[in-house]
Amino acid sequence: MSEHHASVHWRRTSADFTYDTYNRAHAVTFKDGAVTVMGSAAPAFRGDADRVDPEEAFVAALAACHMLSFLAIAARKRFTVDSYEDNAVGVLEKGANGKLWVSRVTLRPRIKFGAGTLPDAETVAQIHHLAHSECFIANSVKTDVTVEQQ
Question: Beta-carbon neighbour count of residue 120 at 10 Å?
């Protein structure tokens, strides 16, 4: 098995510390500080729109994991993938318990296969199904994740 590390760094920049005034800006570092993502709360929660919020990072993690699983399966099946793009969407809403949660994520991958290796739609759907079942992140959450083939 393996371990995966991320460090979150935040410091107060406001004169006082109230819900309305404290800064949400922070840095998330990976790879012993070699990679930094500038984070914040979502704008709806007084965050900075020009930084990545945790909900976006969650959606991105699901989309990237699905893509990487898809690419691995396609390569093993000897289908050449030339490009893969996804505009994933996550929905934050109140659950039955009254708490906010990302209840569903929709992946919308667009895949271009190399010449001579174009699988039919049923095979692509099977690869997506297998990719979803093999995705480490999808296997780690209770959010409904669906794939809409584009």
Answer: 8
Does 119 reside within a domain?
A: yes
- φ, ψ of residue 109 to 5 degrees: the values are -70, 140
CATH code of the domain covering residue 93: 3.30.300.20
Residue 85 CA, distance from chain mean position: 13
Q: Which structural domain, as residue segments, surrounds residue 120?
A: 54-147
The answer as to whether 37 is a domain residue is yes
- Max Cα–Cα distance, the chain, nearest Å: 63
Confidence label for 33 from pLDDT (cuts 50, 70 and 90): confident
Whether residue 91 sits in one domain with residue 127: yes
d(CA 112, CA 110): 7
Nearest Cα to Cα of residue 66 among 112, 128, 111, 121: 128
Could you tell me which of 83, 70, 75, 71 has the C-alpha nearest to residue 112? 83
For residues 29-51, average pLDDT = 95
Using 50, 70 and 90 to split pLDDT, how confident is the model at 146? confident
Residues 19 and 72 occupy one common structural domain:
no
